[in-house]
Amino acid sequence: MGSAVEYYDFFVFGTAAALIFPQVFFPDDDASAQVMSFATFGFAYVARPVGAVILGHFGDRVGRQRVLMFTLVLMGVATFAIGCLPSFDAIGWTAPALLVLCRLLQGLSAAGEQAGASSLTLEHAPDDRRSFFTSWTLTGTQGGQILAALVMLPVVAMPDDIKFSWGWRIPFWLSALVVVVAWVIRRTLHEPPEFARKQATGQIAKIPLADLLRHHWADVLRVVFCAFIAAVSTVFGNLAIAYGKEVGVNESITLWLVVVANIVALGTQPVFATVADRIGRKPVFIYGALSSAAFMPFYLLSMSSGNDLLTFALAVLTFSFGYAAANAVWPSFYGEMFNSRVRFSGLAIGTQLGFLMAGFAPTIVTALGGVEEGGWKVTAGFTAVIAITAAISAATARETKDIPTAQLGGPALDPAPIGATINR
Predict the structure, then answer these.
(1) Please, what CATH class does the domain formed by 2-185+214-400 belong to?
(2) What is the Cβ-side half-sphere exposure of residue 288, based on CA atoms within 13 angstroms?
């Protein structure tokens, strides 16, 4: 529930950056308004590595639950504030400056959300079902994206004078209601037994970042490059919307593509995660990455075919049966590379550095002509490069599905003489 609320806020911004903000926060006659609008979307990803260091430290020091409560409130406040911002016509360039500030606060919050939720869930889960249980934190994320798209649907259908004046603000103001619901639920969370035991016995890392970089630097780099795969989500949920609009797809249809694909992913992600618990994280993740690269050009091409049914089918294939495999598995795959002393920090820092690619994918691809007529080639090529990079990085990782939770990321993973007693 907390992840759904956090990412409702996050994805509402992304949809607005594609369809609303170029007209509200930038000069009407500026041809680069779309690029600048997508750049504000990317600014959150600049803040996320900073937030990862700060929130990762406290998550590994004072506890996962407390940090998760903080991120929830910060995201809610920042999102509500966006809905109150004056337009460019009212205060000029101060308007996009304030938008960037709020977006930076959203980024700080998101930096700790998935790392904290995934760490807490993984450490509570049974050893043989960690991938399945942690996949539900991403199901929350998908739920947030579905909710964001559904709320934006009536907004984009409004007359322009209403939509660009006060109509677009409603989804941002609604975040206040869902934050209250998530607060009530999240405040009952308990710290995982393994973390609580180390906290009680004084085994908590004094400086988690130092321990992380000393003992897990290779895994941090591995997570960074694996996390490039998240750019598929922003290509699908933001770039494709803008490209579809360019080639004549109705705005409502482009949003429904996101909704339907995410709804189907709610069902496929637990299945992929269950498969990962049986055959391993690596093969499922690598399949998800490579299939995303293979399906994306067909999805984009279908947008200019005039066949909405074909476009919906390829949207589901690309997102729900391709990207969803990697998306379902990464919380366990990345989290199992680290021990509980530094897991929050390792997950947060590794993913947030990798997510920079996702954050600036819309800006990069738009600047290269990806949302112009024929721009599908640029977008598909970009998707292939980041997906192949993620797959290669994943292939270098160890397989951790059979390692007990208490032994993850420890010295037991290193070769040891037969019969030696290993202090884990």
Answers:
(1) mainly alpha
(2) 34
